[in-house]
Amino acid sequence: MGLIKLAAAGAVGYALYKYATEKKQEAEFAGGVRDSGPEHMNTPPKSWDKTDEAIDESFPASDPPSTY
Q1: Which residues are within 8 A (CB) of 67 and not within 5 positions of it... i.e. 6 or more apart?
Q2: pTM of the predicted model, to two decimals?
Q3: Which of 25, 55, 58, 62 qualifies as a FRET site for 10, CA 20 to 30 Å off?
Q4: pLDDT in tens, 20-45
Q5: 54 near 64, Cβ under 8 Å?
């Protein structure tokens, strides 16, 4: 009986650990959406113009920028 309780406690502890670490990763990732602009990119491009800005601001929307 003691072994079953120990296994149940371990399973509950593992479930709580997984829940906590997944919530932390979701908060850090923020759904995969970053702010627009080259200053928020991991590797920003060397050149950046108004068209690049409009495209970046419209992503992930399906509509193209109104500047076209």
Answers
A1: 50, 51, 54
A2: 0.40
A3: 25
A4: 777 655 555 555 677 778 888 888 88
A5: no
Number of other residues whose CB lies within 10 A of the CB of residue 26: 10
Residue position matching structure tokens 């908060």: 27
The phi and psi torsions of 38 (rounded to 5 degrees) equal: -70, -25
Given a contact cutoff of 8 angstroms between Cβ atoms, the answer to whether 45 and 28 are in contact is no
CA distance 66 to 24: 37
Per-residue model confidence (pLDDT) at position 31: 59
Q: Are residues 58 and 50 in contact, defined by beta-carbon separation less than 8 angstroms?
A: no
Q: Spell out the domain ranges in the chain.
A: 1-58
Place of tokens 């959406």: 33
